[in-house]
Each structure stands twice: as C-alpha cells, then as structure tokens.
C-alpha cells in the first residue's frame, strides 16, 4: 500500500499480501460470583459454558481461537496470590473442538477477578502480525485486583497500535460493571453488550467471533504526515496509522479524479490524561489552501476515542485548480483530470500537568475514493410554493379565529 517510507501511490499495482487467519482470544471470568443463578434460572458459569460450546461448534475453520480464564484455580483468601490467577487453557491456533469444549466444561467458579492482568496477558497470547486481533471478555463483575486498572490496560493496548480490539460482554446488571466494560471497549474501538439471557450471550458471542473475519485483513499502513501539504505523503484508498502530538497539524494528499468522491475519516485514541474541552478537526483543502470541506468532533470530559469524517466530490467546486490542465473537452477514452486534495488532521488537545507529550497519540486515518453520489438538494423557496400557500392560509385562519374570540370577549366584558 505504501509506495515509499512515507507515501502511497494511487496507481500502484503491487501484489496484495496474503492475509493471516483471524485470531480471537476468549477471556472468561470464573471468579466466585459466577456461581450466581440469575440467568434463566441457571448459574452464570453454566450459561457461559453452553455459549462457549455452541460458539466452538460453529467456529469458521480458518479462525484461530484461544481461551484464557481468570479466577479459576485459587480457592484461598490471599488477595495477592488470587490476583495473579489467570491461565490460558487453550492456546491461540487452529481449534481442536473436542478439547476446547472439554477444557471449558470442567471450569468451576473459584476466586478473585483480575480483569486488568488477564487482558494484558491475553494481548501477549495473541502476539503480533499483519492481521487484526480480537479479545472477547465475558465477566459478571468489576475488577477486584487493580492495579492494573483494566481501563488503563485497555488504553495501553490501544496505544501500542490499532490492530487489537476488545469487545466486552457483561453478565450482571450492575452500573459499575457496565461503566468499566464500556471504558475497556471504547478505548480499543470495541463494543459492550449486556447479556441478560443464555440466547443473548450465545448469539452475541457468535457475532463477535465471526466479526473477526470482517476486520482489517492487514495492519493499517504506517505513514508519516508532514507539517505542510506540499510534499505530504500521497495516499491511495486504505487505512493508515500515524501519531500526532498535542495541538499538531498533520498533512496528507489524496488524488481524486473528476466524477469521483473522496471519503475520509480519522480517529485519535486518547491514551493519556488530557484537559477538558477537546476536539479533532479533519479538513480537505485545495493545493492553494482554499478549504473544500471539514468534519469536526468535540467533547468535554473523559473520552477514549475522538473521531471526525468528511466527504467531497470533485464536481462540487467548479473553479478547482487541477494538477493537469484539462484542455479541450475530453473524449470517451481520455483520462479524467485529477485534483490533488490536501487532507489535514488537527487536534485541540492539551495535556494535564505531568502528562508525557511523546510519542504522539495514535491516529487512524481511513481514505476511500468512490464514484461521486449527488448530495440531496436542500429545500428552497422556489420549490416550496405549496408549503408557502398552506402557511399563508394557516396564518389567515389563525388571525380570523383570534379576531372573533377577541370581539366575543370584549362584548362579554361590556355586558358585565
């Protein structure tokens, strides 16, 4: 995808790399609270075991699956020892369905809930490579062992790259648990779901495992944006990763032909404490600096990912300066003129006291160029005569009724 260390050419014909099989690690809470019998009259652990069995049976052959547990072996009261209780019972790889189901079926709720440590170890289990990796965490309780705080661990994992996603499934209707699982999922671009029945858990677990096949087949290409448009990396459609420091502007270029539409989005992972009131701005400009379109997202308070997007058609601005002089009207076989659009990612973040500024925050930029689709026309007076007539009639009727009521009230008042 990249034509050089900091550029990617739209017309490169390089061979696509062979995608690795999707890798998924299921992380199951086996702490003592999983004995509770509040899901369809069954214990939480039995519902989870049934769901695991059905998911393993339906697993696509190409998926590499691993299973890690927490709180499954230590029965004592020593918190320090109990908070180290996490093991991988099925290594990540091609699945032996019989062994995997047997390993889960023998689990019995036992100990503490070291969610943060289990997530950190699960990421190590999945290793590195060119494919996206997913962790699916199933738990009924809040972490009882912090540090490490599981939400902070999720931010650390997100800061290492954009190829690890953590999805969370909550088995207990507890607000603290919900907030913690939401935080973990949001930090890595994952999802949170509350499973209130055996069917809910099974269906959602199957969806998440199957979704691993739909995530990026390869790691987002690393690219280095510049501080001006001129000489910025030239990007073809794809997904890119970069880093941006506080209040920085990073520039990229995208070639867009006549009749095409640019669609771009950016997400910045806030992997460290920042001050309130923040935002991210994604702009598309012409090479002479004229702004074509912008997308912005802003917030106040804690968040883990800030995103913005935009779309722009090469036909929207009739006086665009083209990189090529189109000259005479093109023939059917002529190559359409190309507009180089400058994309600039800006952030309005400021660090809290003591927050490290380097390395920059993780940035994921998605670029696509498709056939232009006309934007819907906005309403205008020239096309709204029927509406204007109705409004006029409504005004006349309202005035008439108001006048009659006023005359009746005045007449009544005089009589009295």
Short note summarizing the structure:
The chain is of the alpha/beta class and 416 residues long. The chain has eight helices and 15 strands. It has a six-stranded mixed β-sheet, sandwiched between helices. A five-stranded mixed β-sheet has the order 7-8-15-10-13.
Mind explaining what this structure looks like?
The protein is of the alpha/beta class and 416 residues long. It folds into 2 domains: 23-211, Rossmann fold (3-Layer(aba) Sandwich); 221-326 and 334-371, Sandwich (Jelly Rolls), CATH 2.60.120. The protein is built from 8 helices and 15 strands. The strands form 3 sheets. A 6-stranded mixed β-sheet has the order 3-2-1-4-5-6, sandwiched between helices. A hairpin with a 5-residue loop joins strand 11 and strand 12. Helix 1 (44-57) runs antiparallel to helix 3 (97-105), helix 1 packs across helix 7 and helix 4 (115-126) runs parallel beside helix 5 (150-159). The longest helix has 31 residues, at 385-415. The radius of gyration is 28 Å and the shape is extended. It starts with 22 loop residues before the first strand and ends with a helix. Residues 23-212 form the VWFA domain. Pfam families: VWA_3. It comes from Micromonospora craniellae.
What structural category characterises the helix and strand content? alpha/beta
Shape: extended
CATH topology of the largest domain: Rossmann fold
The CATH fourth-level homologous superfamily of the largest domain: von Willebrand factor, type A domain
- As an assembly, this protein is single chain
**How are the strands of the biggest sheet laid out side by side?**
3-2-1-4-5-6
Q: Approximately how much helix is present in the residues?
A: 25-40%
Instruction: Give the count of structural domains.
Output: 2
Query: What is the number of helices?
Result: 8
The proportion of strand residues reads 25-35%
- Series of secondary-structure elements, N-terminal to C-terminal: EHEHEHHEHEHEHEEEEEEEEEH
Q: Gyration radius, to the nearest Å?
A: 28 Å
Q: How does the major sheet shape up?
A: 6 strands, mixed
The average pLDDT value, as a whole number, equals 80
Instruction: Show unreliable segments.
Output: 1-17, 317-335, 376-383
The name of the CATH architecture of the largest domain is: 3-Layer(aba) Sandwich
Quote the distance from N terminus to C terminus: 89 Å
Protein name: VWA domain-containing protein
Region (Disordered): 1-23, 311-335
Domain VWFA: 23-212
InterPro entries: CLCR, VWF_A, vWFA_dom_sf
